[in-house]
Design goal:
3-stranded mixed beta sheet; Rossmann fold; single chain; alpha/beta; Dehydroquinate synthase-like, alpha domain; binds glycine
């Protein structure tokens, strides 16, 4: 398989998303990106550096005067300014200058931090994304959102900074832990729900094949997800309007992520937040009860949580109010006007929020009922 999606920024060609099943084309794709005899810094974690020695390094060495691997600790809890400082120090020690290149080899945490380092080191150096998880392939590697968490607030410090290339090798999914794969499915389902009902129905019809990791089905699923993400970020790169639709499930999801001390994966929290947002959409009579339950069942089918324990509704609401998904002092929700059609809403009342929390906060009596 081999696909290419061209992404523009402010109507100008900006970067390509290249979808492959190996790293074989990487060297060729770097033509024109690595200029002259430059250095390359590869940022990876202890899981993704397995792709470095035998697969990426030999290809990159053909393009650069030197290739350096910088290994950082995996996990959202390490997406901090301290880790970025560690990367800055490594780059300074190795004399990286503005014409050198950084590569993010990993999932969303690596991509966000490498992008932020690239945006700020020497006021900006080039970087490319090599996303190795489903979530980073379909979402976080595309669109130039970079940043770190700060004081446990998600992505509170960051920059919009576009990569020069997004190169995905789908064979990396073969070794991805299943929990990580399902976490990415939350973002895939999101695209269907917010933008494309036919994609949503297709996911339902292909559920068994997706669960079986059938190659051609995964390829189509990832390609279609990338097309939807491309379309939205091209129209609204800085999230002044419609890009906020991509935050479906994230208003509540981010609060749960924080309250659970980042013990749940991002997609797992997005699933919980999506169920709450779908319920709010049902309360507003935008979608039917059947549609709400069908959405909930979809997350269950992909082993994603639809209820969470040891969290209080009032804590979720209070953390939500301090998240950056606010519009002035109104909490910004993404609701479903219909399946495949989302809207921004800043009028959800505290009472409605409590009703939605009831749906996702696990109660023992429900279990024994
Ligand atoms: N992940 C949401 C966005 O890129 O806007």
């Amino acid at each position: 398989m081999s696909s290419r999606i061209k992404v523009t920024n402010e109507q100008k060609p900006c970067y390509d998303i290249v979808i492959e099943d190996s790293f074989d084309r990487l060297e060729q794709e770097l033509d024109g990106i690595v200029k002259g005899n430059r250095k390359i810094g590869v940022i990876a974690d202890e899981n993704t550096c397995i792709y470095y020695d035998n697969e990426c390094k030999p290809l990159l060495e053909k393009k650069a005067s030197a290739v350096h691997l910088i290994v950082i600790k995996s996990g959202e809890e390490n997406k901090t300014l301290d880790t970025v400082s560690f990367i800055y120090k490594s780059l300074i020690e190795k004399h990286f200058d503005r014409r050198d290149l950084l590569i993010a080899l990993g999932g969303g945490v690596i991509g966000d931090m490498t992008g932020f380092t690239a945006a700020t080191y020497l006021r900006g150096i080039d970087y490319i994304q090599i996303p190795t998880t489903l979530l980073s392939q379909v979402d976080s590697s595309i669109g130039g959102k970079t940043g770190v968490d700060f004081l446990a607030y998600k992505n509170m410090v960051g920059a919009f900074y576009m990569p020069k290339l997004v190169y995905m090798n789908l064979s990396t999914l073969k070794t991805l832990p299943v929990r990580q794969f399902f976490s990415g499915m939350a973002e895939v389902l999101k695209y269907g729900l917010i933008r494309d009902e036919s994609f949503y129905s297709w996911i339902i019809s292909q559920m068994d094949a997706i669960l079986e990791h059938e190659t051609t089905v995964l390829e189509e699923m990832i390609y279609r997800s990338c097309l939807i993400k491309r379309e939205i970020v091209e129209r609204d790169p800085k999230e002044l309007g419609e890009r906020a639709l991509l935050n479906f499930g994230h208003t509540i999801g981010h609060a749960i992520e924080k309250l659970k001390d980042f013990q749940l994966l991002h997609g797992e929290c997005v699933a919980l937040g999506s169920v709450a947002a779908a319920y709010l959409s049902y309360l507003r009579k935008y979608i039917t009860a059947e549609e709400y339950y069908e959405i909930r069942d979809m997350f269950v089918a992909f082993s994603l949580p639809v209820s969470v324990d040891t969290i209080r509704a009032e804590d979720i609401i209070s953390v939500t109010k301090s998240d950056k998904k606010m519009d002035g002092d109104q909490i910004k929700f993404i609701l479903l006007k219909d399946l495949g059609n989302a809207m921004i809403d800043t009028t959800v009342s505290v009472q409605e929020m409590y009703q939605a929390m009831e749906q996702i906060i696990y109660k023992e009596e429900d279990y024994y009922a």
